[in-house]
Please model this.
Amino acid sequence: MVEANSTNLILIPARMQATRLPGKPLKNIAGEPMIVHVWRRACEANCGPVVVATDDEAIAGAIAKVGGEAIMTRADHPSGSDRICEALEKYDPDEKFNTIINLQGDLPVLDPEIVRQCAALLSDDEVDISTLVAEITDENEKTNPNVVKMVGAKISETRQKALYFTRATAPYGDGPLYHHIGIYGYKRQSLERFISLPPSPLEMREKLEQLRALEAGMRIDVAIVETHPLGVDTPEDLEKARAILEKV
Model:
């Protein structure tokens, strides 16, 4: 377990303009907005301070109401990575935090342990970025282009060095396939470098931002976790999250 560490900062980008589920950060789940559930799970990870990065006063207000902290950012960011970079500069101009966890704001039933696993990989000096995968057990996911797969080189039973991310079914042949989980850890200088890079050819082709880092020669290590957390992207996902959390 990674202890609370003054060099770690968890940033949660949140915006209202989701295409399939508009206003989803404030959707009610078991009596609280979804973004509050994510914030609570992040706090339970005990990896360091947790800050929501948003361009919406209502989201910031929901976090302030429960005693959390939010940073207002511009509305024109092309990605969550750009949003957290602005929030980092505003929250920590003195550069006290060396490692940043970018946690999606639509994971209300997240297991805090996987946040700790993502953070732990950054203790390796050779790693620029960390992320997570779970083994695919649903056969339909293997051919689903909405399920991003990671192709990696084995380091241990629970860790790999990422070689590629793709929407295709890969790698070919017998063996496990891994479903990428969109939680990222960054060394601070790696995040700043990543944001400074232009979109890369493979990134634009696959529509996968992390390929920009790989094409630039940055190292991404991956922790293999037990299960893929439920991401809320549709009304159906929202009902699933409500069913889970209303039982707690």
Summary: The two ends are 24 Å apart (CA to CA). DSSP finds nine helices and eleven strands in the chain.
